[in-house]
Specification:
Layout (H helix, E strand, L loop, with lengths): L2 H11 L34 H6 L5 H13 L1 H9 L13 E4 L8 E4 L4 E2 L1 H5 L1 H8 L3 E6 L6 E5 H17 L7 E5 L5 H11 L3 E4 L6 H11 L3 E5 L2 E3 L2 E3 L1 H14 L6 E5 L17 E3 H4 L12 E2 L3 E7 L7 E6 L1 H14 L7 E4 L6 H13 L3 E5 L10 H9 L3 E4 L1 H10 L2 H4 L8 E4 L6 H11 L6 E3 L33 E5 L5 E2 L3 E8 L8 E2 L3 H9 L6 E9 L5 E6 L3 E4 L2 E4 H9 L4 E11 L3 E10 L7 H14 L8 E4 L13 H8 L16 H9 L3
Parallel strand pairs: 4-17, 6-7, 6-8, 8-11, 11-12, 16-17, 16-18, 18-19, 19-20, 30-31
Antiparallel strand pairs: 1-2, 3-13, 4-5, 9-10, 14-15, 15-24, 21-22, 21-23, 23-25, 25-26, 27-28, 29-30
Bound molecules: ligand 6R9.
InterPro entries: Ac_CoA_lig, ACAS_N, AMP-bd_C, AMP-bd_C_sf, AMP-binding_CS, AMP-dep_synth/lig_dom, ANL_N_sf
Pfam family, one: ACAS_N
EC number: 6.2.1.1
Length: 695
């Protein structure tokens, strides 16, 4: 059976498929739970009133659209693409692809030959259709009384001014621009300005260290770097300019010179006068950008011209530059946003992700603006001044769609219901979750307490590499199961394979792959197409391999089980164990390090590092601190190990391979599950490590 068939069969055979809402006992959203044997059987039915007005109102409607998207992808996607503006229509072939390494170079193209511009489609097109005075961005500052907003027209003017500045400073189509900005309006403005002139933006999350930023500068050699002097995160001032200065000075010592560093004065965090300045290189945004013209011609680019580079972690120490192109990404982010959140023109949308991650690219900036949505941006941390801030923001802007990460849900859940229930939240209509599996208890709290048992939750599974949602509920269309990302989005054919790469059908679990490409797929790793092919397409020839484990239940619902490679997921941030290890061993007193993920109540996974010290060096609290610091400095605070475990020696096989399986068990204190340790070169190492666990 083809995958398509079994997807459909699963949905068709679901006993919950309504033949009209009439046979659902209670018509309000209801959790059947307690009496059922397993979590998998908990069904949360859509509220019929919600379904009635939903874009996809029933499983049948989904099936119709899904079937067409699989049987006729060219027709399905070109119909959608035709709703956007193309300077010139794409060529004869909507999609050409090879995902099979045994058949030659991996290659994916969508809408090739078509000329378009994503900035034009986000702004000019919405203005022309009469939405110029609609709010595009609401910005909420870290402090309670600092905010701002821009209409679509105003946003376009700001974008054009920056685009003109970039052009005047020699940035041309295809050039790279590194963006190191916090969540202020200048961040989406910068992304859109780059897109307008065909420049490739590479946003670096402003929590990365100088060393990480330097690495990225070396890899993509930007024409210009855009930053701001500082940002407030809660009560802390973070001096971003200092980090950029350190990164750029290291890069120039290594032969990569950045001529211009455009710096926005983020007044509420730091004054101009207090900012360190390199004459000749540094330019204040406020001095130059407002002087530029508020109109700027669009650079029409091929659908397959690059739009952005975004670095992400893999299983080796070197970050991967994920490259997305223009046309397919545009169509895919717009469509997934629309359906997975059941978007309506009247919605006010808030996604708590930072634009430094893919979620901020696809679902703060591009997806929502392509739909003409009103987007809320929040500069600060979600629990400042207290754990009620999110709901304060929801009430202030009458947010209808709220999209966040399980780690935030868990942390707010721990702070108690009171912070939530003291706000009305009655504007909320749809909730969303992303970044890691959401555990059923957090799901229920999110649903019952935050959403007053009224709002469906879109638990969206996807990745930096996929560009947009891959497996996601479509609110109103079918019942949800707490903790399951449910069913594939239109055009997506997820398959589960065993170790040998055989597709497995029915109720099963294994490695999650995708058959055939979708428009939002990444096209290569910047400057390293070979690594692209080996990392994603070689393990299971013929498929894209996600790196995630997944099981599928009898109803065809998907349950993501986490990474199966050496990547850990800390608060929804992807961190390679190798990256942390290489930071640790750069410490002069650290001889060797092995890092594993352990379950963490709030972060999902925590970082647990075993370290072997240089001969003769004693382990001490001071040394522990300096080991944590070296990781903060090399990667960023979000990658700081939660636990350092001194290991006089590490468990290794006779061929010298570290047995992480054993380390994981020791870290999670599952000592009765150590398994076979007889293949270790020195099995006594295990007891020694266990004895040191509490030191
Ligand atoms: C969008 C994003 C991707 C990895 C992915 C998986 C995990 C993301 C998830 C999820 C279960 C979800 N992940 N969403 N796991 N359910 N709804 O997070 O991209 O930073 O590249 O991370 O995150 O393990 O492989 P990215």
């Amino acid at each position: 059976a083809t995958n398509k068939n079994h997807q459909l069969r699963h949905v068709e055979s679901m006993n919950i498929l309504p033949s009209g809402a009439g046979n659902i006992p209670e018509l309000n959203a209801v959790i059947l739970g307690e009496s059922l044997a397993s979590e998998e059987h908990d069904l949360v039915f859509p509220n019929p009133k919600f379904s009635q007005h939903a874009l996809v109102s029933s499983p049948q409607k989904y099936l119709e659209m899904y079937t067409r998207s699989i049987e006729d992808p060219a027709g399905f996607w070109s119909d959608i693409a035709s709703e956007f503006y193309w300077k010139k229509k794409w060529g004869q072939q909507v999609c050409s692809q090879n995902l099979d390494v045994t058949k030659g170079r991996i290659n994916i193209e969508w809408f090739k030959g078509g000329l378009t511009n994503i900035c034009y489609n986000c702004l000019d097109k919405n203005i022309e259709s009469g939405n110029g005075d609609k709010i595009a961005l609401h910005w909420e500052g870290n402090e309670l009384n600092i905010d701002g907003s821009l209409t679509y027209k105003q946003l376009l003017e700001k974008v054009c001014q920056l685009a003109n500045f970039l052009k005047d400073n020699g940035v041309k189509k295809g050039d790279t621009v590194i963006v190191y900005l916090p969540m202020i309006m200048e961040l989406p403005i910068t992304m859109l300005a780059c897109a307008r002139i065909g420049a490739v933006h590479s946003v670096v999350f402003a929590g990365y260290s100088a060393e990480s930023l330097h690495q990225r500068v070396m890899d993509c050699k930007p024409k210009i770097v855009i930053t701001c002097n500082a940002v407030m995160r809660g009560k802390k001032v973070i001096n971003l300019k200092e980090i950029v200065d350190a990164a750029l000075s290291e890069s120039s010592q290594n032969g990569v010179f950045v001529a211009t560093c455009l710096t926005f004065e983020n007044e509420s965090a730091m004054k101009k006068e207090d900012t360190k300045w390199l004459k000749g290189r540094d330019v204040w945004w406020q001095d130059v950008v407002p002087k530029c013209s508020t109109t700027c011609d669009v650079e029409w680019v091929d659908a397959e011209d690059p739009l952005f580079l975004l670095y992400t972690s893999g299983s080796t120490g070197k970050p991967k530059g994920v490259l997305h192109t223009t046309g397919g990404y545009m169509i895919y982010t717009a469509t997934t946003f629309k359906y997975a959140f059941d978007y309506k023109d009247t919605d006010i949308y808030w996604c708590t992700a930072d634009c430094g991650w893919i979620t901020g690219h696809s679902y703060v900036t591009y997806g929502p603006l392509l739909n003409g949505a009103t987007v809320v941006l929040y500069e600060g941390v979600p629990n400042y001044p207290d754990a009620g801030r999110c709901w304060d923001i929801v009430d202030k802007y009458k947010v209808t769609i709220f999209y966040t990460a399980p780690t935030l849900v868990r942390s707010l859940m721990r702070d108690g219901d009171d912070y939530v229930t003291r706000y009305s939240r009655k504007s909320l209509r749809v909730l969303g979750s992303v970044g890691e599996p959401i555990n059923p208890s957090a799901w229920r709290w999110f649903f019952n307490v935050v959403g007053d048992s009224r709002c469906p939750i879109s638990d969206t599974w996807w990745q930096t590499e996929t560009g947009g949602f891959m497996i996601t509920p479509i609110p109103g269309a079918w019942p949800q199961k707490p903790g399951s990302a449910t069913l594939p989005f239109f055009g997506v054919q997820p398959v589960i394979v065993d170790e040998k790469g055989n597709e497995i059908d029915g109720e099963c679990s294994g490695y999650l792959c995708v058959k055939n490409s979708w428009p939002g797929a990444f096209r290569t790793l910047y400057g390293d197409h070979e690594r692209y092919e080996t990392t994603y397409f070689s393990a299971f020839p013929g498929y894209y391999f996600s790196g995630d484990g997944c099981s599928r239940d009898k109803d065809g619902y998907h349950w993501l089980t986490g990474r199966v490679d050496d990547v850990i997921n800390v608060s929804g941030h992807r961190i390679g164990t190798a990256e942390v290890e290489s930071a640790l061993v750069s410490h002069p007193q650290c001889a060797e390090a092995a890092v594993v993920g352990v379950e963490h109540e709030v972060k999902g996974q925590g970082i647990y590092a075993f370290v072997t010290l240089v001969d003769g060096i004693p382990y001490s609290e001071e040394l522990r601190k300096s080991l944590v610091l070296v990781v903060r400095n090399q990667i960023g605070a979000f990658a700081a190990p939660d636990r350092i475990h001194w290991a006089p020696s590490l468990p290794k096989t006779r061929s010298g391979k570290i047995m992480r399986r054993i380390l994981r068990k020791i870290a999670s204190k599952q000592l009765d599950e150590l398994g076979d340790i007889s293949t270790l070169a020195d099995p006594s190492v295990v007891d020694q490590l266990i004895a040191l666990a509490d030191s």
